[in-house]
Amino acid sequence: MVLGGIFGGSSTTTPQYLTGDKTAIDAFIDQFDTFLFDCDGADRRRRIGVLWSGDHKFPGTAETIDMLRSRGKQLVFVTNNSTKSRADYKKKFDGMGISAEEEEVFGSSYSAAIYIARILALPPPKNKVYVLGESGVEQELQSENISYCGGTDPLLRREMMPIDFESVASGELLDDDVGIVLTGLDFHPSYLKIALGMAYLRRGAKFLATNTDSTLPSAGSLFPGAGAISAPLVAASGQTPLALGKPSQAMMDAIEGKFKFDRKRACMVGDRLNTDIQFGIEGDLGGTLCVLTGVSKKEEFLVKDAKVVPSAYVDTLSDLLGESKAKAEAST
Amino acid sequence: MVLGGIFGGSSTTTPQYLTGDKTAIDAFIDQFDTFLFDCDGADRRRRIGVLWSGDHKFPGTAETIDMLRSRGKQLVFVTNNSTKSRADYKKKFDGMGISAEEEEVFGSSYSAAIYIARILALPPPKNKVYVLGESGVEQELQSENISYCGGTDPLLRREMMPIDFESVASGELLDDDVGIVLTGLDFHPSYLKIALGMAYLRRGAKFLATNTDSTLPSAGSLFPGAGAISAPLVAASGQTPLALGKPSQAMMDAIEGKFKFDRKRACMVGDRLNTDIQFGIEGDLGGTLCVLTGVSKKEEFLVKDAKVVPSAYVDTLSDLLGESKAKAEAST
After folding, report:
1. Is A319 annotated as a binding residue?
2. Which residues bind substrate (chains A, B) (predicted)?
């Protein structure tokens, strides 16, 4: 098989099917110094994802990662999951037996923290963040020494009382230092928390979101995602948040700022066309690789006029090992 | 002053200023057999509204209502507030000393109940309603003998547990009879409640909203309205609810169905151009009257190219009494 030479993300190129073609695989891998990986498959039941799905690791994942390391590749694990910190992810990788360093993980909460601390860089003390989200957001803000309120504060997980309308309106319940409202996936929404977020936005706070994924795949079904948590504030305030997760290029800029890689020698690996692959194409990376163990099906990008087309695709990540499928499956 | 004859809701007509012009007022009132009134001003502090604002009654309100009754007018009190039932409103009118019957009140929850029972009329038992809202919605569903779940059920005001993802996905936590999801203003949102609503929508339930007001005026500020409660479901499901409150004409149809009035001999009285006045114009009523004790200012409809223009306007509702302003104010 003759390689096309340049693995551009252009939607006019026919994507290359790498599974079972050792020569093509080696040439593909050699094109890149850096691989950005989507991680998640939160969905245990349907077992969809790239590296794992829930507690299920796809066969050959650890070996594939080790192979790329042995060939000197820089690896970055990119996730939109805002509820987990990089430290949480390190534990997940360890539990899965996949080699990874905390510093190689880049989540949407960390992306938001980096953006707030290094790019937005509001002058203190008016740079406090009001959080609608879980501890993953809080941990990453702490890691960048950003002060915050809201989040997992149990005092806000309560009923809105009539007096609260007065206290929010008067500003008594507000922290004067808040200059940013940051939403992520929050499993504990309350009217009081939404009302406080709206009050801060009405005072001129910047509106950010770790990501705005509309859905969260879980248990073989779809649940409300981070986009459903920011939605009440969008409706009530008329404002739209800047999203710091895939496919927002604000996240790509932050990743590049931290890892200093050559975009033309980098490849995004993922299972979702409209987040992962689009993220790589819009970021003008040298290539994109779609893994078919996930959400998107090859029929979606092999059709004529497909909107988002990867440079290449494989049935499963471990196909990059170049072993026969039977052998790869037998080894785990 | 010579009257223009027809008080159409057309935006090309210059609205007539009635305050202080007894002849014009009498002629205006004589044009109509039916008056539809907006009621609410939830905002105690800023005292904005038509009949009242919070616990503050505008001077002369009761007398104006009595005057219209003495002239044989049919009165309907129309409100988008979904948290209160007609019975709740009757108590409010009584407390304010304003004469009104429960049957004259038409709220967005009642509008939704009427729509579900008489227009949508899904075949039982698959016509149960899953409610995201407060007791006002439940009471009105009961009044039309519609079965429901969700709503104020304290068992749903709890944390989403990991097992809940499985139970929602498997359908174990779902009621098989639910065919409709109805959202109103809910002061007790929870991830579990939103996840259940999403699951019902994914099963094909109809999506309705009592109203989709983005904000709730209160305590001199703005808080998240019913539109902020439906927003997570809109984001997560990609579906948009049919709204049964102002300015949706589904509400006007329901009002007409119940009260059997002649639209050309009916006038909508309200303080908001983009809800009340638009509701009357789109409903092709004979006239609309804007009361300036509320949200909208006359500058908004007196400018050239104004989008929504009432037939007439008064400074305050009691100006319809035709008394001098000083006298009206002294009388309360």
Report:
1. no
2. 246
